[in-house]
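Ligand-bound model needed. flavin-adenine dinucleotide.
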Amino acid sequence: MSILREMTGKVWDLIVVGGGLTGVAAAVAARREGLDVLIVEKAGFLGGAPGTLLINPFMPYATTVDGKRFELSRGFFTELRGLLKEAGGYVDGREDIHEEYVKLVLDRLVWKEGIQPLFHAVLCGVEQEGEHLTAVRVVTKAGILTFRGRYFIDASGDAALAVMAGCPYHLGRPDGLCQPMTLCFRIGNVDISTFQKHRQEMQEKYKQFQAEGKIKNPREDVLIFHTLVDGVLHFNTTRVVKHDPTDPFDVTEAEMIAREQMFEMYDFLKNNCPGFEHSQLLYSAGEIGARESRMIDGEYLLTETDLRDCVQFEDAIAAGNYDIDIHNPEGSGTSHYYFPEGTWYTIPYRSLQPRGADNLLVAGRCISSTHEAQASYRIMPIVVTLGQAAGTAVALAARDDIGVKEIDVRKLQETLVQNGAFIGI
Ligand SMILES: Cc1cc2nc3c(=O)[nH]c(=O)nc-3n(C[C@H](O)[C@H](O)[C@H](O)COP(=O)(O)OP(=O)(O)OC[C@H]3O[C@@H](n4cnc5c(N)ncnc54)[C@H](O)[C@@H]3O)c2cc1C
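Prediction:
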């Protein structure tokens, strides 16, 4: 039998849509509980944002308890950091990650675990009987393929599967605006120590050029990170506002605007800023990054108040304390709410449960929450913990052949903790 016929002919225990960090975490957790798992991914690699959008580094995921560092994102996230470090794509403390190593370690991991990835496969349809999903359809080079499954996890970032299945959702803020989109890029051959010495001066010059109309990018400053490669800096600084990340024409225009901003920034740095005299523009991401798009209206809508109050949900499955970091959806400015040291919020299992589906969970940046809450939990360390929780929950449901909302949440929490996770309560 051809491999294609074998893969399309069977009923998978779990189909994960989206092979980003969330999707891989979900797949690994479910596989380790014995499930047969397929990941469908539109790119040609696993890991999502680091590879597709050039996202780097891991944002902060720890606080201080009794004077000691206390990590809030653990479990599979700790394992992932270990794998990356061993391969040479991550350095403890710096939190910079190298996207090529992310791709490599995840290839090796799914291979070792016996998870089936399918690259260059874009979700284009769903089959369902009422609230029960039975199959997904994906566009591939071999045409449209149908894969049948018992359970499904939507780790697409955009809630693509949940929306196709008719589950309720919202886009961004109540007025429909989302956080800005950003095309990340890299500049090489930078004299890093000279750049560091003149960093503040560069920021002041940027503001001056903006005031004089020489820089069109509405972002208030230049957002730069180091990388693991000598002389190479990472730029997370283009800003395109008032474009809908789920409207393909808006995304097309946003990418063209962001590309202009990238060249504007490079010219500014090269011609005006010490350290960049011999610099070279290297490359931009393959697609513009959406910090936020659709979020499901699930069984519980996580809010800013829940986060600020550090609510300890009874059905908590993850914890976080990254600041509520809102890049202004309308133009210049970024607002922050920082959590007091030693505190964290929790994320309830109900926020991963879409309404209107009994064998589907949603994980990653599109769980059920408001714009403000999403601005905190959307970072890579936290979405990985959501993926692990979703995969573990599906495994428990599959064992008893029940709906994902019917599982024993205590058992889910116990299993997560046994597997190294911190759930915050
Ligand atoms: C510009 C920007 C800067 C950021 N900076 C940081 C940072 O510095 N540090 C940090 O920790 N976080 C950062 N974040 C946030 C973080 O990167 C993301 O929120 C997080 O990685 C989302 O993970 P995810 O798995 O939910 O989605 P993704 O990583 O986007 O994964 C979703 C996967 O699903 C696939 N997919 C999507 N649709 C389909 C479909 N229809 N069919 C098949 N496959 C599909 C995609 O190709 C992708 O691989 C940033 C985000 C952006 C956009």
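Residues 16 and 153 are 5 Å apart (CA to CA).
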